[in-house]
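Weekly sync, protein design subgroup
Attendees: M.S., D.O., the rotation student, P.L. (late)

Item 1: inverse folding check
M.S. brought a backbone from last month's batch and wanted to see whether the design step gives back something sensible before we order anything. D.O. pointed out we never logged the input encoding, so this time it goes straight into the notes. Structure tokens as presented (221 positions):
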């Protein structure tokens, strides 16, 4: 962060606001750039950090606000894309995969149905857990985007903005919000299993009744 702030201070050394700022920290702005750089380097860490904050506030506040807004918009767009993908997968599970599995059950192909049920369970779990993987994907894309639009900022400065904006979207999409489609998909899987259990039970009861009927007509003692 020191390198990034120092470079930007020197790039803006003709700005009277920067000159006044340096004077406040006991640095003569009329020195050679190399001398100003050396003076900045010699500042204690806490003092340099305060200078950096003052510099951003006095000369870059509008720019930082613009960058923050762009990253916030990008975070929302990325999450919207990820949620749409999860919604599509959930819809496919509900509207195709589950009906196809039920058709196998109706045909009496129990082995194929059991395999399909395993796939349904795996995809159902994956849709839910992938929300958290998307969080990592979104942050990584935001870091690349932040570098693209603000290469003059240091990595810690960019990461600070990214973490602030990404954390807000994380809360909205993972901790506090479960996509409605994932809830619908979970209910659809649960309903499929209840349906199959009920039909298996009814089938067992029919078999018991048939066996009881045969025994009642068996003339043997």
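Designed sequence read out in the meeting:
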């Amino acid at each position: 962060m020191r390198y990034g702030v120092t470079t930007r201070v020197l790039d803006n050394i003709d700005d009277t606001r920067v000159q006044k700022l340096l004077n406040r920290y006991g640095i003569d702005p009329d020195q050679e750039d190399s001398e100003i750089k050396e003076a900045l380097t010699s500042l204690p860490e806490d003092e340099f950090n305060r200078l950096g904050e003052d510099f951003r506030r006095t000369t870059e506040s509008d720019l930082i606000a613009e960058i923050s807004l762009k990253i916030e918009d990008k975070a929302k767009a990325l999450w919207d894309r990820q949620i749409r993908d999860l919604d599509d997968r959930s819809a496919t599970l509900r509207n195709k995969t589950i009906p196809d599995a039920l058709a196998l059950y109706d045909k009496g192909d129990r082995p194929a149905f059991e395999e399909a049920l395993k796939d349904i369970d795996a995809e159902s779990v994956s849709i839910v857990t992938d929300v958290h993987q998307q969080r990592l994907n979104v942050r990584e894309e935001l870091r690349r985007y932040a570098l693209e639009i603000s290469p003059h900022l240091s990595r810690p400065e960019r990461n600070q903005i990214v973490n602030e904006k990404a954390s807000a979207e994380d809360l909205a999409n993972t901790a506090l919000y479960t996509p409605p489609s994932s809830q619908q998909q979970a209910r659809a899987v649960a309903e499929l299993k209840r349906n199959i259990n009920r039909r298996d039970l009814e089938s067992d009861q029919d078999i018991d009744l048939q066996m009881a009927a045969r025994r009642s007509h068996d003339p043997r003692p």
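Discussion: The longest helix spans residues 61-107. The chain has a mean pLDDT of 82.
Action: P.L. to compare against the previous round before Friday.
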